[in-house]
Amino acid sequence: MDAPLAVIALHSLPAIALSLSLPGSLYLAGLTLAAAMPTRPIRCAGPAPARPARVVLLVPAHNEAGGLLRCLRSLQAELLWDAEARIVVVADNCDDDTAAIARAAGISVLERHNAQLRGKGHALQFAFEQIDDADWFIIIDADTDVERGFLSKMRQAMATGADALQCRYGVREPLSSTRSTLADVALGAWNVLRPRGRQALGLSVGILGNGFALSRRTLQALPYSAGSIVEDVEYHQMLVAQGLRVQWVDNTQVRGDMPDGAAPAAQQRARWEGGRLRLLIEQGWPLCRAVMRGNWRLLDPLLDLCLLPLAWHVSLLLLTFLLALLLGAGSVQGLAAAGLLIVALHIGLALHLIKAGRAHLRALLGLPRYICWKLGLAGAIWRSAGRHAAWVRSARRDH
Q1: What confidence score (pLDDT) does residue 144 get?
Q2: pLDDT in tens, 178-221
Q3: What is the pTM of this model?
Q4: Which domains does the chain have, with CATH numbers?
Q5: Number of neighbours of residue 29 by Cβ within 10 angstroms
Q6: Local mean pLDDT, 10-residue blocks, the chain (399 residues)
């Protein structure tokens, strides 16, 4: 390459890096601004129904014998005041005592064994097909506690005539370790701030995989056929494409376990982010075409898929800022700094929304190390994005 061309290419690097991060920064800015707006109270749609909705609290479980009982006790406490709800455990490809423990606790159990079709999406599809007497299903992971009054507040949201619901989803013991506290901050941004922002903008808020609810009417219109590693994201795209909407329930939450230890945490992150990358590879262009043809409701799922994880987004912004500083690209440097400020405001509002304490602020001191750890997962994420990548349960502490 000639020297002048090499110089031009070198000086174009900051602009190229900025172009990769700018859409994500604008998307984050929009969601952050919308999430800062006051939430509207839940209102019933029309007169009260003749009878309460029949609700199934559905617990998909794969080898959850160690912690299942605590989850069931949390759910059973909700049933004390609700005669029209029941719990069903889906013991999916289990080779431990998951089914026996659930039955001993007085819970109905569906057992599924299929070595070829593995994963949560297949377990849910099986349960939805087997249970024909429910008006609503609320999906609760087997490592989860629900907040007191959870079922009552979800019922209030069901009465609005919603197609589907999603409540807050956080960490069960957020102060047990620095890793868990940082996870609580991350989920505060991903599982609270962003859905809240989408709700304020009139968008479908997304499905977070835990603490979401689907009506029988919705499942009849769109059967649950998502079988990827990130089946919740996949099914949400299908819902939006059908003109259906997930509504946000901001006044209650579920809290689930995070992986215990660096290796299980890395496995879970690689699975989540690799699954999203695979979905982007497969669905990115079809979503783009649908948006270009005027189906604007699919723009948000497309932007959500294209948005880099925050650690990668911040790394790209820092790289852009440093390149612009070294090469004297002042305008690019300013835009990169603005992108970093947007991320800071995004995290700050997330901390406010989850009522973070001093432990959360102290945990933020570990962000540089966390970002380096996330960057080190690039290879594992790419492998998890493979067409034939299999779902694997992450190891968690047993209670």
Answers
A1: 96
A2: 888 999 999 999 999 999 999 999 999 999 999 999 999 999 99
A3: 0.91
A4: 15-38+273-384 (no CATH), 55-261 (3.90.550.10)
A5: 17
A6: 58 83 94 90 63 93 92 95 94 94 95 89 94 96 95 95 96 89 93 96 95 97 87 94 96 90 82 88 92 93 92 93 88 94 97 94 90 88 73 56
Which token pair is 73?
Answer: 């006790």
